[in-house]
Amino acid sequence: MNFRILFCILVTTTSHAQNNTFDSLYQRVSKDASISTPQIALLHLTQLEQASKTNKEQIEVFMLRASLLRQYGNRERAIVTLKQADSLANKYKYPTIQARIHGALSTLYRENGIETLGKLSLIKARYWSKYVTNPLEICVLKGNLMQEQAYYHMNASLYEEAIKCLKEGRIEFAKIEDAKLRFFHLASTDQLIAENYIHLADEKKAIDFLLRAQGELRDSAYPESPLKGFIYKSLGMAHLISQDFETSFSYLNQAQAVGEQSNFVELQKQALASLITYAKQKGDAQAYVLYNEKYMQLIEEQLNVQTKIADFLVGSYYEKEGATKDAYKKYVWYSLSIGSGLLIFISLFYYHRRKYTLQFKELPVASPATQPFVVQEEAVKSQDTGVDHTYISRETEELILQGIQLFEEKKEFLKHEISLSKLASQIGVNHRYLSYVIKHHKLQDFSSYINTLRIEYIVLLLQENPETLKYKISYLADLCGFASHSRFTITFKRIKGISPSTFIEQLKKKR
């Protein structure tokens, strides 16, 4: 749920005793982002960057930027920004910050549909949380870890398991000594527990937890948080279970009012989506059309705002990064000038040495059967990928390589409908970046890369499973993701040098 901003980014207490300016700005941005939209926080982000002096402060700025990027729909850049924060945190060993970063990455990967990477980040967050010593941070981290795990269960429709996780997290939040902070986390957890009971159609338990959440929020540090609207929205959906349309409509209208008052778009979206469900169940066609139109209008407005804000955030990042790159380029230029003479001398020395050696020493000759493979392997090992990191950042490249590895491990290349755009969407990156990385790391275009994976898969299957030798070529083609017998045969022959039927006959003779 988006009122939580981003997992563990703004939930722990940050102390910057030696930099009162940064501390004041950070608290202001954190409060603005916690109780409203990031639009107000955005105004202070540049000042916050200028005030940051220590490594920890720079990391906090990275994490706030990631939160804002995520809120405005640019999850790809948010992930890259968190990776940069992680690199800095890992260098100086800040376990609390590293736990928060990996928790945030888990949220982003999960929202992008890359649950395997998300769960891996959650494991890393748990690992680093073991080294946290501050009692408040321990409680908040453990509680949020259980909330994040609950989201994975909810995505899998395992609502009972999600409730168990949330109740465990609730125990951790109950240990927070600061009453106002404790009540806010408890209210957040109880609202989420109620959501699961709504999915289970248990109206009574859902309403009990929501009424408890209302009381906790009133006594919390943020009584007017958008969480108030989310509780109204859940109450409306809970009463809809028993078709109490009048009560449901009242709560949903209150949720929409809170969303408009706070200008919190995600709450407005959820309130309108719930009103659409309400109108559909009631059979009110006119209201159904009206809420649908409002919902689509809100989506269009949000996309326009997301583009503008994301452009500003990314643009200001590159503007800051540009000065560093210019200085680095000058440094590299001077270094190359000094070292070029020495490099040329060494190259000439080895050239003449090798030439002299070849005159008096007979070179070993590899056998025809092994020579091509060995040469090819050495060429791949020694080859520079040639990736231009002024076009694509190292963090994005790493993210894509991790996504590709996962894609291969899960054998998703066997799906008929796989495409460059779909894989890019799964990884959460631009399709041009994905194509660029495949070209430089796999030395193939996307189509050739997929076809090679499919053919290698079917070859291994035929070699290891004798039963498959009896299958028809058309079935084998379908099995590895090809749309037709002819396309499979042409591709197989291009990659292996022989047709699939000839290959199968050869395997049969060997057996």
How many strand elements?
0
Mean pLDDT: 77
Radius of gyration: 29 Å
**Percent of sequence in beta strands:** under 5%
Shape: globular
Which stretches are low in confidence, meaning pLDDT under 50 for 5 or more residues running?
A: 1-19, 316-339, 341-346, 348-383
Biggest sheet, open or closed, and with what strands and sense?
none
Distance between the termini: 58 Å
Reading the helices and strands in chain order gives: HHHHHHHHHHHHHHHHHHHHHH
Count every helix, treating DSSP H or I runs of 4 or more residues as helices: 22
- Say what oligomer this is: single chain
Short description:
This protein is mostly helical. The chain contains 22 helices and no strands.
